Amino acid sequence: MKWLIVVAFCLFSSAFAFEKNLQFDGHRDIVDRLKEELVNPKLGLLANLDKKITNSSLDPLDIPGYDQKFLGEETKLSKGKLHGLSTLHRYKDCIITYERTEDVLTVQIPIQFNDISFTYDYLIKVILIPYKGGVTGKMTNFRMNYVFSLDLNTYHVALKTSEITHSGFKKFNSLYRITMKFLVFFVACIALAKANYAELISQKYESSTFEIPQDVAEDFLVLARAAEQGLESGTSAVINNYTDRLLLNIGKFIVHSGMDPMELPELNQKLIPVGHFYLTEGWLQDTSTIGRYGDVIVSYSHDKKFSIEMPLLFDDLQLTYNYKVKVGLVSYKGEVLGKIKNLKMKAILDFDFNTYQASLKKFDMTKTGTLTLKFTGNVLVDWLVNAMSSAVSLLLHPIITRIMTNLVKLPLESVVSMVNNLINSILFPATTTLAPVLL
C-alpha cells in the first residue's frame, strides 16, 4: 500500500505549495484558505479527485508481480491490477490545529476508498506440473488518515504521519484461499523436511543424566526370563505396572532436563501476496505427562525373543506463541493458544536371548492427535484468522509430533542401554562399570 501514500502525498502537497514570497495579512487568512481548499465541493483540494485519478492513469493501476523459485518449484503472480482508486473521498471533517510555540499549522485529512478490488494471474509449478488460475480480492471502505504540517515561517509543507484506520478487507474468492493454503503447505513441507528435531532434542538432553532406579533395569531382565519359562495368567498386569513405573521415570527426566515446558522454534511465513506472519516465544507444556492408554502386549517368539509392546499417550498438550501479522502497512499482534489432544505412540522393547541384548525394536507415532488453535488480540478480519489458522496448523502440527517422538524415543533408547550395561556387568564383571546413561 506504499504507493497510496505516494499518490495522496503528491496530490495534497501540490495544492498546499505556497510560494515563500506570497504575502498574507495574517494566519487567519491562511486558515480560511485551507478550509476553502478542503471543503469547497467544486474548487477545493478534494474536488473532482475521481477524474484526476482516472486522467492520471491511476485507475486501474498496475501492481507489482511476485515470482519466487525454491528448490526447483515456482510461484508466480502476474498482470496485477488494482481497481477503485477513483472512489477516493473525504469521509468526515478535516481538523486544522495551530501550534503557537512553533508557528505551525497541522491539517488532519481523513480519506476513504469506497470499493477497491484487485486481480492477479497465478502460476504454480510443483514437480514440473503447472497450475494456473486467477486471484481476485475486494476491500470495502478502506480508510486512511493523513496529517500534514505547514510551517508558517518557511511555508514548507510536510507529511507528518499516515496510517490505515480501517483495512477494509472483505473477501477473497475461494480459489485464492485454496491457492494460499496450498502454497503455505508446500513451503511448510520443505522446511519440515530439512529440520533435524532429533538433534534439537539431543542438545537439550546433552547435559542431563537419565537416572532410573536400578530395579527398573533389573525387572526387565526378570520379566524376560519369566517369559522364557512360559507366559502365565496375570503377566499382563505385572507388565502394565512395570511400564507405568518406567513412564513415570521418563516423565521426571523430561522435567529435570528442562523440557516441560519446552521452548518451540520461531517461525515465519509469507501470506501471499500481501502479508507475512511471525511466531515467536513459543512454549509446549505438559510434555512430561506421558501415560499408557491400554494394556501392554507381551510376547515370546520361537526364535527366543521377548517383546513388550507399549501403547503410549499424551492426552493433552498445551502450546502458546506470540504472533505478529503484517498485511500491507497494517500490523496485528496477539497470542496463539493451542491444544493437542489424544497423541498416541507405540514402542516395542525387545530382548534377544541369543545375544543377550535388548533393543528398541520399533517406535511409531500411531495417531498425531487433534490440534486446535485460538487467536487473541486485534485480529479484525475473518479471512486473516482463517488464513493464519490454516498456515499455523500446517506448520506446527508436524513440528510438535516430531518433537514429541524424539522426546520419548531418546529416553527409551537409554533404558535399552542401561539394560545392556547391566547384562554386560553380569556376564563380564571385570570389564563393565554400571553407570547412568548420558544422552
Write a brief caption for the model.
The chain is an alpha+beta fold and 439 residues long.
Structural commentary:
With 439 residues, this protein is α+β, with helices and mostly antiparallel strands. The protein folds into two domains: 171 residues, Bactericidal permeability-increasing protein, domain 1; 244 residues, Bactericidal permeability-increasing protein, domain 1, CATH 3.15.10.50. A hairpin with a 3-residue loop joins β12 and β13. The radius of gyration is 33 Å and the shape is elongated. The two termini are 52 Å apart. The N terminus and C terminus are likely disordered. Keywords: Signal. Pfam families: Grp7_allergen.
Helix and strand topology:
Elements: H1 2-15, H2 27-39, H3 49-55, E1 61-63, E2 66-70, E3 73-83, E4 88-90, E5 95-99, E6 104-126, E7 129-151, E8 156-166, E9 169-172, H4 174-194, H5 197-205, E10 209-210, H6 214-229, H7 235-256, E11 262-264, E12 267-271, E13 275-285, E14 291-292, E15 297-300, E16 305-327, E17 330-352, E18 357-367, E19 370-377, H8 382-427, E20 437-438
Antiparallel strand pairs: 1-3, 2-3, 3-6, 4-6, 5-6, 6-7, 7-8, 7-9, 10-20, 11-13, 12-13, 13-16, 14-16, 15-16, 16-17, 17-18, 17-19
Helix pairs in contact: 4-8, 5-8, 6-7, 6-8
Number of helices, counting only DSSP H or I runs of 4 residues or more: 8
Find the CATH topology of the largest domain. Bactericidal permeability-increasing protein, domain 1
Measured as a percent range, the helix fraction is 25-40%
CATH architecture assignment name of the largest domain: Super Roll
Task: Catalogue the unreliable spans.
Answer: 1-25, 174-195, 432-439
Number of domains: 2
Termini separation: 52 Å
The secondary-structure class comes to alpha+beta
Number of strands: 20
Strand content of the residues, in percent?
35-45%
* Average of the residue pLDDT scores: 71
Rg calculated over all Cα atoms:
33 Å
> What general outline do the C-alpha atoms trace?
elongated
Q: Largest beta sheet, briefly?
A: 9 strands, antiparallel
What string gives the helices and strands in order? HHHEEEEEEEEEHHEHHEEEEEEEEEHE
CATH class of the largest domain: Alpha Beta
Signal peptide: 1-17
Keywords: Signal
